[in-house]
């Protein structure tokens, strides 16, 4: 019940005209970046971050998180009307969403997408409201070894559970961790990997890297493809909305299952992409008529959208409670917190109650306002796609440059952004994942500090990571996850052998 | 309205042709990337070893953690190099076709020039030149539309960042002449 009282306090912090206006601005900008090809949640938040530098942290994070919600909503518009998934997690939405639009049911598909996004996010926000304070108060007991073990768990689960080739994830992560170490060593004050360059003294700001890796590289990739758009226009009437909402109880199992999958994969680093596909596949598997999926079935829109949005929102839970982001966008929001001098993690709930509960309250309000906004403004946002890409592309490049420069007022960062853009383009095309790179760049210094403090405390004895039940279990779990593909293979082989023995006469 | 009979069509006059020849295969690019990463791992590893990658009386030296990360990066890159070399013959997937490369360069080169111009003439002048030039030369959009769009967008950016949110951007001689 304490959480409920604190949440009400959060609403009190939030309900000022200034914050509400910022919320609306954030949502509109978010839907805008969600709809535009070549932009998306992480890019939008990173590029627009400088707008919030002069605000107080609560207003700033409310605006940024609303950009995030807006971008999540906006992605569905292009997926359904144009068959263009703005983000990878929207791919599954196109399977049934676009056929619905072709059948003249675009408004129904969009309502289903927006409503299920809302439901998925709502379930995840409820989880954050009640679980994050508990996790953070538990994490207050953590020392450096426990924190390093949690970081290790995050890194190992990316390698062990990721879909990409393992060595590529290792390359991506170690490169990110190395680049995070460039500049002045926070413990000894020594310079590392600067090679005499005064520009590298500051280190590499991960937001600059993110803008290049996601923003510039996406422009290069988008330009590479054919950009002849052909889609449908739609506006949503109250009758259609009420019609879809009336049928919602029929799909309660799909919505609940997808919310659960989304929350689970959001807290662990499985991510929204895996969540949306898993949500879709399970909905199809449990359906009485699986053959109708892919031909314009509304359940095929409900399932991936609910799962993706539950996952995207739940990724904020470990960020707030432990300071470990569960997704690329959560990592950027975490970077925003650090820009304003806030230290994400368990102490945030103790030292900055107003901020944390204002943010959680904004998640509720942002979702409700976002839902109403997208339902009423679809034609306006869909018409953005009429603008030729030759006009949109240079504007995105300029926005990226402004974002990169404004973070540290350094011209060098614009060049860095361009360099990371090329790296991102090449990495994406040869299958080196960018999410572990971003995560490592954000967490690199914290992980190193936790490791060094642990080692100093133990006199260099690695047994410190098994010194008590808690740290020992987390470290062991991390190692199990790192070698999970091997363990899984062995288990499967043992299972097969036993089955063969059992069936042999 | 739940009808969707109204169709939005945006044609791309510069769309790449489907039968364009391959410039380079993904396997070759993977080999080059692994070699570059290997060189980077070696360089950073050497620098960290030089800074101090062992253990002293106060604990791990500054290069300790990054040195071992360089080793991991080097190991991953070496493994990637071997895998890429072994699988090279199996399938020559195209990394980029000639038409695609042309289009990528059509964005990359103006972006590179934009960064260069920003350094000397300031961000807003460079933005105006990039947007108007790109729209006109790459998008074949009417000159007046290109100039107007560039002017309006640059003005909005200036008002938003420099005036409303007090985020000061790099300026050049033109802005200086206007007293900013």
UniProtKB/TrEMBL annotation, chain A:
<feature type="transmembrane region" description="Helical">
    <location>
        <begin position="355"/>
        <end position="375"/>
    </location>
</feature>
<keyword id="KW-0472">Membrane</keyword>
<feature type="transmembrane region" description="Helical">
    <location>
        <begin position="20"/>
        <end position="40"/>
    </location>
</feature>
<feature type="transmembrane region" description="Helical">
    <location>
        <begin position="109"/>
        <end position="135"/>
    </location>
</feature>
<feature type="transmembrane region" description="Helical">
    <location>
        <begin position="387"/>
        <end position="408"/>
    </location>
</feature>
<protein>
    <submittedName>
        <fullName>Tricarboxylate transporter</fullName>
    </submittedName>
</protein>
<feature type="transmembrane region" description="Helical">
    <location>
        <begin position="414"/>
        <end position="443"/>
    </location>
</feature>
<feature type="transmembrane region" description="Helical">
    <location>
        <begin position="200"/>
        <end position="220"/>
    </location>
</feature>
<feature type="transmembrane region" description="Helical">
    <location>
        <begin position="319"/>
        <end position="343"/>
    </location>
</feature>
<keyword id="KW-0812">Transmembrane</keyword>
<feature type="domain" description="DUF112">
    <location>
        <begin position="20"/>
        <end position="438"/>
    </location>
</feature>
<feature type="transmembrane region" description="Helical">
    <location>
        <begin position="60"/>
        <end position="82"/>
    </location>
</feature>
<dbReference type="Pfam" id="PF01970">
    <property type="entry name" value="TctA"/>
</dbReference>
<feature type="transmembrane region" description="Helical">
    <location>
        <begin position="147"/>
        <end position="163"/>
    </location>
</feature>
<feature type="transmembrane region" description="Helical">
    <location>
        <begin position="251"/>
        <end position="278"/>
    </location>
</feature>
<feature type="transmembrane region" description="Helical">
    <location>
        <begin position="464"/>
        <end position="487"/>
    </location>
</feature>
<keyword id="KW-1133">Transmembrane helix</keyword>
<dbReference type="InterPro" id="IPR002823">
    <property type="entry name" value="DUF112_TM"/>
</dbReference>
TrEMBL record, chain B:
<keyword id="KW-0812">Transmembrane</keyword>
<feature type="domain" description="DUF1468">
    <location>
        <begin position="32"/>
        <end position="170"/>
    </location>
</feature>
<feature type="transmembrane region" description="Helical">
    <location>
        <begin position="107"/>
        <end position="131"/>
    </location>
</feature>
<feature type="transmembrane region" description="Helical">
    <location>
        <begin position="143"/>
        <end position="165"/>
    </location>
</feature>
<feature type="compositionally biased region" description="Acidic residues">
    <location>
        <begin position="8"/>
        <end position="20"/>
    </location>
</feature>
<keyword id="KW-1133">Transmembrane helix</keyword>
<feature type="transmembrane region" description="Helical">
    <location>
        <begin position="23"/>
        <end position="45"/>
    </location>
</feature>
<protein>
    <submittedName>
        <fullName>Tripartite tricarboxylate transporter TctB family protein</fullName>
    </submittedName>
</protein>
<feature type="transmembrane region" description="Helical">
    <location>
        <begin position="65"/>
        <end position="86"/>
    </location>
</feature>
<feature type="region of interest" description="Disordered">
    <location>
        <begin position="1"/>
        <end position="23"/>
    </location>
</feature>
<dbReference type="InterPro" id="IPR009936">
    <property type="entry name" value="DUF1468"/>
</dbReference>
<keyword id="KW-0472">Membrane</keyword>
<dbReference type="Pfam" id="PF07331">
    <property type="entry name" value="TctB"/>
</dbReference>
């Amino acid at each position: 019940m304490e959480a409920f009282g604190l949440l009400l306090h959060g609403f009190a912090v939030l309900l000022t005209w200034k914050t509400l206006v910022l919320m609306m601005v954030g949502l509109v900008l978010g839907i805008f970046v969600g709809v535009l090809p070549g932009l998306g949640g992480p890019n939008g938040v990173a590029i627009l971050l400088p707008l919030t530098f002069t605000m107080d942290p609560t207003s700033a994070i409310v605006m940024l998180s609303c950009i995030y919600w807006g971008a999540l909503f906006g992605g569905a518009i292009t997926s359904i009307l144009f068959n263009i998934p703005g983000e990878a997690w929207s791919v599954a939405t196109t399977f049934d969403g676009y056929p619905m639009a072709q059948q003249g049911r675009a408004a129904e598909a969009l309502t289903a997408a927006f409503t299920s996004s809302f439901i998925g996010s709502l379930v995840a926000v409820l989880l954050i409201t009640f679980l994050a304070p508990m996790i953070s108060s538990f994490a207050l007991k953590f020392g450096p070894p426990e924190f390093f073990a949690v970081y290790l768990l995050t890194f190992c689960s990316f390698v062990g559970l990721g879909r990409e080739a393992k060595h590529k994830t290792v390359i991506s992560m170690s490169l990110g961790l190395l680049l995070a170490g460039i500049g002045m060593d926070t413990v000894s004050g020594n310079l590392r990997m600067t090679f005499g360059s005064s520009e590298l003294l500051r280190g590499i700001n991960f937001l600059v890297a993110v803008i290049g890796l996601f923003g510039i590289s996406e422009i290069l990739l988008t330009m590479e493809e054919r950009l002849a758009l052909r889609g449908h226009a739609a506006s949503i009437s109250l009758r259609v909305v009420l019609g879809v909402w009336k049928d919602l109880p029929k799909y309660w199992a799909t919505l609940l299952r997808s919310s659960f999958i989304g929350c689970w994969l959001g807290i662990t680093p499985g991510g929204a992409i895996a969540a949306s596909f898993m949500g879709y596949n399970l909905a199809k598997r449990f359906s009485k008529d699986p053959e109708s999926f892919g031909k314009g079935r509304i359940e095929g829109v409900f399932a991936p959208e609910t799962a993706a949005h539950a996952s995207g929102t739940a990724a904020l839970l470990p960020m707030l409670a432990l300071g470990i982001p569960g997704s690329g966008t959560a990592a950027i929001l975490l970077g925003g917190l650090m820009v304003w001098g806030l230290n994400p993690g368990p102490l945030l709930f103790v030292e900055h109650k107003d901020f944390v509960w204002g943010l959680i309250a904004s998640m509720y309000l942002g979702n409700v306002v976002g839902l109403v906004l997208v339902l009423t403004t679809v034609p306006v946002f869909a018409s953005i796609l009429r603008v030729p890409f030759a006009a949109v592309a240079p504007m995105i490049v300029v926005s990226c440059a402004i974002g990169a420069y404004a973070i540290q007022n350094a011209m060098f960062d614009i060049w860095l952004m361009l360099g990371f853009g090329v790296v991102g383009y090449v990495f994406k095309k040869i299958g080196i994942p960018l999410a572990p790179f971003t995560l490592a760049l954000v967490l690199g210094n914290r992980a190193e500090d936790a490791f060094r403090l642990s080692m100093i405390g133990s006199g260099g004895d690695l047994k410190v990571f098994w010194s008590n039940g808690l740290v020992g279990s987390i470290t062991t779990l991390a190692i199990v996850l790192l070698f999970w593909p091997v363990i899984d293979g062995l288990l499967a082989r043992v299972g097969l052998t036993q089955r063969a023995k059992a069936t042999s006469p | 309205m739940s009808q969707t009979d109204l169709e939005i069509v945006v044609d791309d006059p510069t769309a790449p042709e489907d039968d364009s020849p391959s410039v380079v295969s993904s396997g070759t690019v993977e080999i080059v990337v692994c070699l570059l990463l290997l060189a980077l791992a070696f360089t950073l590893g050497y620098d960290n070893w030089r800074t101090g990658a062992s253990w002293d009386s106060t604990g791990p030296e500054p290069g300790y953690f990054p040195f071992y990360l360089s080793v991991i990066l080097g190991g991953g890159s070496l493994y990637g190099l071997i895998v890429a070399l072994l699988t090279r013959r199996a399938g020559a997937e195209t990394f980029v076709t000639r038409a695609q490369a042309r289009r990528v360069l059509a964005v990359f080169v103006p972006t590179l020039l934009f960064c260069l111009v920003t350094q000397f003439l300031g961000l807003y002048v460079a933005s105006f030149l990039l947007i108007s030039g790109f729209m006109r030369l790459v998008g074949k959009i009417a000159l007046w539309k290109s100039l107007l769009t560039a002017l309006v967008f640059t003005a909005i950016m200036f008002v938003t960042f420099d005036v409303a949110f007090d985020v000061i951007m790099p300026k050049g001689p033109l802005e200086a002449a206007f007293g900013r």
